């Protein structure tokens, strides 16, 4: 009888495992539905706006010079696709380069500000002061300083986008739990060891938050520079199409910018998720 009870356990003994499996399956279904909703709702909202735009412009017979319907913009996008890609390349590589330089400079400056009270008291007020100045007003100065080449647009992109990285990184480096810092001192860890092992890992989510903002600012900086001093790029193409009253081409160029901006932001967000999943959680 004892052997039979071991080979064939009671039915209620398997219930906890079955309940856990059912709970896990339900949790997966809820997560999948939530992910689907996060994708479907913005897509449906955008589709609704485009549909209203299309029907409204055609019903009101709005001239295409003022506001072409989305179908006309799509047609212009397809026909002018080689031209758009030709001008998109300078904008893309300068945005990526400006974002990369701004990220490196921002993390480096924030690390120095966090490491030294004297450096913070000396530099931080000046950094904030320069950010209070309307940045577009300073764009012509970059042309005077760096000329009409890509250096002016690249430097202006860095100038516009590095401040969010500085602020976010500095917040992450400073908001470390005091108990962890006291533990590092008790273990006689050096300042560098504390920075590498505690402060920097804790600041990773903050750094990526600043990088996501900087990814959009870098594109804005390049576009503003192309408005002022460029013969190539999507900003130049928008100005050229505006002078020719080609509103559909303007909106097509803006559409390409939107796609690039979304892709850029998505890559940064993916890198953030990948890094946090492998090297730590978000701060609580």
What is the element layout, followed by pairings?
Layout: H1 2-7, H2 15-59, H3 70-79, H4 81-115, H5 117-132, H6 135-146, H7 150-174, H8 178-186, H9 191-228, H10 234-243, H11 247-279
Provide an overview of this structure:
The protein has about 280 residues and is mainly α. It folds into two domains: about 1-60; about 70-280, MetI-like (MetI-like fold). The protein has eleven helices and no strands. It has helices at about 1-5, 15-60, 70-80, 80-115, 115-130, 135-145, 150-175, 180-185, 190-230, 235-245, 245-280. The longest helix has about 45 residues, at about 15-60. It is flat.
Keywords:
mainly alpha, MetI-like fold, 11 helices
Largest sheet: none
Output the CATH topology of the largest domain.
Answer: MetI-like fold
Query: So how many helices?
Result: 11
* CATH homologous superfamily assignment of the largest domain: MetI-like
Cα radius of gyration in angstroms: 27 Å
Structural class: mainly alpha
Helix content: over 70%
Mean pLDDT: 82
Broad shape: flat
Order of helices and strands: HHHHHHHHHHH
Q: Given this structure, which CATH class of the largest domain is correct?
A: Mainly Alpha
Low-confidence stretches: none
Q: How many β strands by DSSP?
A: 0
> What distance lies between the first and last C-alpha atoms, to the nearest angstrom?
55 Å
In short:
This protein is mainly alpha-helical. It has helices at residues 2-7, 15-59, 70-79, 81-115, 117-132, 135-146, 150-174, 178-186, 191-228, 234-243, 247-279. The protein has 2 domains: 2-59; 70-279, Orthogonal Bundle (MetI-like fold).
